[in-house]
C-alpha cells in the first residue's frame, strides 16, 4: 500500500488519471452513463444496482477502465436522479432519497420545486466532491480504518442512526414506537440470516422474499400521497410554481448559509460509506442530526431547504465513498458497489490492497472519472430543473395515472413478482391511514431498512462475545459510538434536566414552560 | 465464491431485454427455428432435429446481485453475447428469496419450459434441509456441472498457526467455542465445512455468519474472527498483500495452478486438508439445471452451449483467477455426482443438527 506516498504523488497520479479520461470514447461513455443513471434514478424500483447489473455483460468487450467509468457514472446519475421524484411526487426514486421527501416535497407543494431540486442536486454534488477528495488523498489510511469495524462496531453505528433520527420526534412517542415496531416486524419476515431458518412466512412462497423496503416506500409514500391528493381535490398543490431559468442562480445564492449542515452531512456520509454503513442510513442520520441542531428545527418537515441539503449531501458522500472499501478491501458498501465488485472480478481485476499499486491506470482513471462524472452529472441535472419542475403543471388527472403505472412497474421490477404490486397498493392504504391518524412514516421506513442489518450485527456481536453485552464498551471506538447513541436517544430528557437545573440556579422560583 | 445475502434495500432485475433490443440475430434465429419446425413436419423421423431457443432465455440466479453465482451468471451472459453463441438473448434474473428457495421453486414449477435455466450453489442441497421448503435437485433436470468452487482454510498472517494441524491443536487448547469461524450465511457451505471440521477433529468453534465473502475476509484481516473458509477469489488479494495465510484446501487434490501467487507460493503449494491431517473434503457445485419435463434435444442444446462457453479464453481466465476446480460433467455422470453430494450434505447437516425437523 502506498501509505508513505505524499499527497503530491496522489496529485500526479490523478493527473495521469485525467489523461486516461482524455480519450473521447471514455468521455462519451461518461455522458451515456450519467444520462442512463438519471433515468434509472427517476424510476422507482429500478435502482443503480439493477442498472449496473443489466449493463455489466455489455461491458465485456470494453477495456476495464472504460467499463468502470461508464458503470460508475450510471451510479452517480442514479444518486442524482433519485431526488427528482422525491421532490415532485413524494416518491423516492431510490432508497437513499427517502429522507429527501421529508422537506423536498413540502417545498414543491409550496411552489418551490425548482429551489428544492437545485438544492438537492447542488448538495449531492458537494457531498460527492468531499468524498472524492477524501478518496484521492487519504485512501490508504481510511481503508485501514474500515478494518477496525467488527459486528459490535457495526451495530453501534446502526444504533446511532436510529437514535439520532428517532430520539427527537415531535410526534407522540407512542405513535413513533408503534410505527417503528411495525417496521421491525415487517423486516423480520423472510430468511433469518443468523439461524438460516424461515421466519413468519407461514408456508407461503410469496413471503419467502420478505417485505422489500422499496416496495413499502413506493406504496407508503407514492400511492399514499396520491390518495391524499385525491381527497384534497385532485390537484397538485405546487402547480402555481413560477418556472424560470434563473431559479438555479437564485437558489445558489441562498445555499452558502447552510455550510455547517453540508459539511456535517458530508462527514456523516463519508463515514457511513467507508465503514460501510450505506447511503440510506447516512441520509437518515444526517437528516436527524440537522433537525436536532438546526436553528430552524421547527420548520423541518414543512419545506425547509436545510432538510433537503442534509440528506442529499450525506447520501451522495456515502454513495461515493462506498467505492473505497470496495476497491481496497473487496467489501461492497452498497448494493451497487456489490455489483461493481462482481464486475471487477469479471474483468479480471482483484479488488484489494494491491489494486492501487498494480492497477494504477484503472484506479486513477476511475477516481478522475468521479470528479468529471459528478461535474457532468451536475450540469445534466441542473439544466433539466425547469423541465422537471414544470411537470407539476400537467393536470393531475393526466399525471396521477401515469405515476400509479410507474409505481406499479417499479414495484414489479424489484423482484419480478406480481404480488409486490398488490403489496404496494396495501402499503399505499397503510400510508394514507398513517397520515390521517398522524402516525409518522419515517420510523417505520427506517426500521424496515435498518432492522435487518441491525439485528444481524447485534446477533453476530452476541455470538462473538458469547452473549456478553460488555462487548459494546470493549474498546474506545465502539464504546464512544454507543455512548453517543444513548446520549442522542435521551437528549430530550437530558436537555430538559439541564434546563431545569439551570433555571434552579438562575432563580429557583422561575417556572419553565413545559413542552 | 459465495453469494451475498442481500440486504433488504438491494434489488434486482430488470427490463433486461432493453439491453438487447438491437440483437440482429433474433429475427434470423426465429426464421431458423421456423425452418427447423417445418423440417420436422416434413421428415417426421429425422434424427434429433436440433432444438434452438425461440425466445429469450431466462437465466435464474437463486442468490442476490453481486454474489458468486450472480457473477458467474453474468459472466456467462457476457461470454454468450460477445461470442454470439446463441441466437436469442439470455437474461439474468435474481430470485434470492428464502435462501434461494424462490428461484428453485420457480424452476421446479416451470414444467416443460426450455427457456428457463438456473445456476446452482450449495443452497440446492442446504436450503431444503435447513428450511423445509420442498424442493430437491430431482425436481429439476440436471444439465451440466460447470465447475466446482474451492474452499481454503485461512488465518490472519499474524496468527502463529502455520498448518491445519497446528490450527486444530490451537483450537482444541483454546477450549470449546473460543475460536471464532466466520463465514457467509447460515447453514450453508461455510457453516457446513465448519461443522465438518468440528466433527472430524473433535473441536468446537463459534460460527459467525456474515453477509458476503468479502466481508468475511475483511473481518479476518481485522482480527474480529480467528479463521475463515473463504473461496480463493475472495481472499487472494489479502493473501498477496500479506494479510492472510492459507492453511489447506478442502478439495480432494491440490489445486493444479503452479504459477506463483504470493510470496513465491502458488495455489499448488497449499496442501489439501486431508494431507495435513484434517480429514474434510468439500467443493461447491456450480451447475446448470432446467425445469422438469424438457426434451433430450433441449438438454443437448444447453450442454453444447456450455461446452462452447467453457472453451472461450474469458472463461478459462476466470477459472484460473478464481482457482476453480474445472471438472465438467453431464448426463448420468452428473446425476450420480449429485446423488453423492446430496447424501454428503444430508449426513453432515444431520450430524450438526442443521436439518429442520
Walk across the major sheet of chain A and give the strand order. 1-2
Q: Which stretches of chain B of 5+ consecutive residues score pLDDT under 50?
A: 4-48
The chain-level mean pLDDT of chain B equals 86
- The quaternary structure here is heterodimer
How many structural domains in the coordinates of chain B?
Answer: 2
Instruction: Give the number of domains of chain A.
Output: 1
If strands are numbered along the chain, what order do they take across the biggest sheet of chain B?
A: 2-1-3-12-4-13
The amount of beta strand of chain B, in percent, is 15-25%
CA(first)-CA(last) distance of chain B: 29 Å
Q: Into which percentage range does the β-strand content of chain A fall?
A: under 5%
- The parts of chain A where pLDDT drops under 50 for at least 5 residues are 1-5, 508-515
The biggest sheet of chain A amounts to: 2 strands, antiparallel
CATH class of the largest domain in chain B: Alpha Beta
Separate helix tally of chain A: 23
Globally, the shape of chain A reads: globular
Global outline of chain B:
globular
Question: Any idea what the radius of gyration of chain A is?
Answer: 23 Å
**Which structural class is indicated by helix and strand composition of chain B?**
alpha/beta
Mean pLDDT across every amino acid position of chain A: 85
